[in-house]
Amino acid sequence: MSEGLSTLLVTLVLTVLLGVQAQRAAAGSRLRQAFTIGAASMLVLTFSNLLVLLNLGGEWLVSLHTLTTALFLVSILMAVIALFNGEFQAKLRQARELVAAERARQTPSRDAKPTAAAEDHDEHRP
């Protein structure tokens, strides 16, 4: 597979993934706008990669890449605004709960008796 074709496929997959995330985000939210603009950015990049693959474009490529960069930066800005507006609070709360549950699962119970190996280890301490 040529490098141009693999790049085209990767950008196309990223476009689809960002589009799916945009659909999952709440309607009218900044997060949805961020994912939608990010998907548009990747779509423009996919189109420019297609032009490169077909040996077309020339002067248009600079304009397309500039547009891609601008859209990408706007999508990042929208994601930051969403973060400060509290749109990530539910996901952050869920992540905190998962981390707390994992820590509770990994730390031994305080009521558990120490094993013989642990007692031997304690006896050898200076």
UniProtKB/TrEMBL annotation:
Transmembrane segments: 32-54, 61-84
Alphabetical UniProt keywords: Membrane, Transmembrane, Transmembrane helix
Record carries keyword Membrane: yes
Organism: Candidatus Viridilinea mediisalina
Domain of life: Bacteria
Keyword Transmembrane on entry: yes
Region (Disordered): 101-126
Protein name: Uncharacterized protein
